[in-house]
Amino acid sequence: MLTAEPGAGKTTRVPVALLEEEWLRGKKIIMLEPRRLAAIRSAEYMAEQMNQSAGETIGYRIRGESKIGKSTRLEVVTEGVLTRLLQEDASLPDAGLIIFDEFHERSIHADLGLALSLDVQEHLRPDLKLLVMSATIDSAAVSTLMGDAPVVSSEGRSFPVEVKYVARPERGFIEPLIVQTVITALREHTGDILVFLPGQREIRAVELLLQKKELSSVSIHPLFGDSPAVQQRSALLPAATGRRKIILSTNIAETSLTIDGVRIVIDAGLMRTSKFDARKGMSGLSTVPVSQASADQRKGRAGRQASGVCYRLWSEAQHTILPKFSKPEITEADLASVAMELAVWGDGEGNSLRFLDRPPKANLAQARELLQYLGALDKNKNLTSHGKLMSTLPVHPRFAHMLIQGKSMNLDPLACEIAALLDERDVFRGKSDSDVDLFSRYSSMKDGIGVHRYALQKFHEQSSRLKKMLDKITVSVKDKTDAQITVNHIRAEEKLGLLLALAYPERVAKRKSGGKYQLSGNVVAALPKGSILEKEEYLAIGDVDGAGSDVKIFLAESITEQEIRSVFAEQIIQRQEVLWDAKEDAVIARHVTNFGAIELFSKSFQPESTQAAALIVNFIREAGLQILPWSIETESLRKRSEWLRMSGIVQNWIDCSDAVLLETLEVWLTPFLEGITRRSHLSRLNMMEILHSLFTYEQRRELERLAPTHLMVPTGSRITVDYSSGQPILAVRLQEMFGEVDTPTVGGGKVRVVLHLLSPARRPIGVTQDLPSFWKNAYVEVRKDMRGQYPKHYWPENPLEAEPTTKTKKAMMKNKDLG
Fold this sequence. Notes:
- This protein is of the alpha/beta class and 819 residues long.
- It has 5 domains: 2-154, Rossmann fold (3-Layer(aba) Sandwich), CATH 3.40.50; 161-328, Rossmann fold (3-Layer(aba) Sandwich); 394-568, no CATH class; 611-706, no CATH class; 710-818, no CATH class.
- The protein contains 27 helices and 31 strands.
- β6 (95-100), α4 (108-123) and β7 (129-134) form a beta-alpha-beta unit.
């Protein structure tokens, strides 16, 4: 492993020097560069140093472009190219050394490529040498991964760079501050300016603002991965004499490239990254702060050829809390392509491979499920014939599936164009209008209206390239799945939604309300307000932001139910469902046709009584017995029965406790649930009848005898007995008990009730279970208090000889006179 500071020459000096090694005689070097621009530029630079052109001793291979000759011994390739070479012939018979340059960027293809190369080295090519080169990385971890490989360090040579911190506002767009800083830098310093911005949208916005400033003797150069080669080379060339250059770049210029004339770096401190949410099965582009390592790489661009200055658009305090390194892409990105490569390799879960950071299990599992859904893997997660065809196309598995299926429907030209269009999604992201429909975007790209020239060029180049690749594939009858749809006499453009659905089957969606759509993958997404698609019943959705709690739709097209049924016939499920609907508080019985989480068709039917009863019972069990229509009488019956059971007066008495009634709902309640399908229907239940069904006739008679509802007191009043506290309580006015010598009983005379003796106002004045003792002892003091509080009432000295009464003294005398 080689670690070296930026500018040390590891990219352009080391590979050339190694070509002369004896152990490489007759073999070539394959060097990986994370970015296409760096691959081209480094190959051209090394070739120039040898007074050659790219394609002779030194060449390059990137997607859609290759300059390799018979005499080429050093191939600079982008990382996906290495993976494809390994899959075609894992032994790499012509290669003696693989170099992984700028490995600290930790791209997903670099991690995968190194894991595959280590596997080849261990099992096929022990003579194959591997070299990892990086500026900032945990070299010990990489060395351990590579079998304790030696680590060589080089200090390199760079010029001092002054750092200036310019804190940006917490809110608002960063573009005005960028422009202001550019103007300041032009005035205070010499040299060209390299501005780091997170993406194409910000680059275009700053470019437009700078053009309005009408800066004299200054040229502006956008630089990003998908910009045309001519534009990229123009950005890298020295400025014309007497002119200064401003390069507006993504992090493509962060490493590898030395841009002549740059003395000033303005760093927005932001980068665009794709984060994958395994729960939603979606990726979302997020703008996040750069790491300290990336910030140092960017700063170093100003000190490659002379001393310089770096403006950081954040505070010095904020710099200390930035993460030290960027997170490896393999831990956060969509792993569908990785899962496909692992399946082709023959190790679907990558268990036998050595990764510096293993792919997250949840993300990899979701990726394999997607491949299975696309037909690339069978039920055992092994590669299918369709999957093998997909793997031959150097595009995302989604697009590979769409291209092959599109060809089976004679839609291959359109499918190639849509794949190329979807590959350029940042061209459209960030537009302020609400037109997210694929047709308008496709029409704009086809007609070249409102689209940058370089985007249009890339679109035509990629679609043409895909068409040539697809022409080489023979789609057999076996590979022509149920996605067959007749397109005769129909404009191909009308099948845009169909093709989009083939690429993103889990994003087929059905309209809900408020501009929201239910996706087949069980996610709800929202259209922007005013979209021309908001009245469409079904959509195929191609681009979403799934990073937050609210999924937003950025690209979609209408699709018909007939197309959905035709394309996804194998995934469409017809079933009956009988369930409890919590929203309706009712049993719902329907014939349902579903595609994933979206409902294509439903029709209600009358469920069997046993099915409905079972659901009602489950609902009651979860909600609790209190939702049943208990009356005072039925509650009294349960309490009396429970007291009798707990008293032990009788053996094996019926258990009417909440726990047992809930547990045995099916036994005692189900027979009475005929016709009950809603919560509101429960009010129809006759709970007294239902409770009585638990008892035999003899048991009901015994209950009435041993636990009566009322007891008669000396006045002749029938007083309710309360059994709820565990001891029977009789709450009665004290005066009604005059003359009573014994405490009333229940339980066949075995249990004395607890007397709650009340004042004439029915307030407690005494509690006893021994009435004779109360008369003898406590009554004397009670009488004194009551005579003062209730002088109109009768308070005799001897309660045992007194007449029980409910009346005042005056009323009692009147009755005697009448008598």
